[in-house]
Amino acid sequence: TTLACCLFEGFMDFLSYLTLVKQGKLPPPCRQPDLIVLNSVNNLPKALPRLKACKHIYCYLDNDDAGRRVVDMLRELKGDAVHDMMEACPLYKDLNDILVGKKRMP
User: How far is CA 101 from CA 5, 25, 40, 48, 89, in A?
Assistant: First the structure.
């Protein structure tokens, strides 16, 4: 069983995460989590066996319907072990927008 993993929708989100952590703008959720990049929410089924083995799943998915559906689906499987890390950033579509400071229009 893996203690924790960070789940990213795409590779650019993963790179933005690494940059934000290095800049001190985003604290990592825990020490040395596993990192999973879906490259499309459609690849979630391929990642499910690995995700089911995680005690905590930290989701850095896009703030859109597809990202929320994945979080909801994972919460049905793992309950409170799933953490939507983008909930705290509702004005941004994804981690790259946080990195470049691009907010959505209200």
Answer: 26, 12, 23, 32, 11
Other beta carbons less than 10 A from residue 22's beta carbon:
9
15-37 pLDDT, tens digit per residue, is 999 999 999 999 888 888 899 99
Place of tokens 């979080």: 71
Cβ 84 vs Cβ 71: under 8 Å: yes
CA 20 to each of CA 33, 34, 102: distance values in angstroms, whole numbers, following the listed order: 16, 17, 14
The single-letter code of the amino acid at 77 is L
**pTM of the predicted protein model:** 0.92
The phi and psi torsions of 18 (rounded to 5 degrees) equal: -60, -40
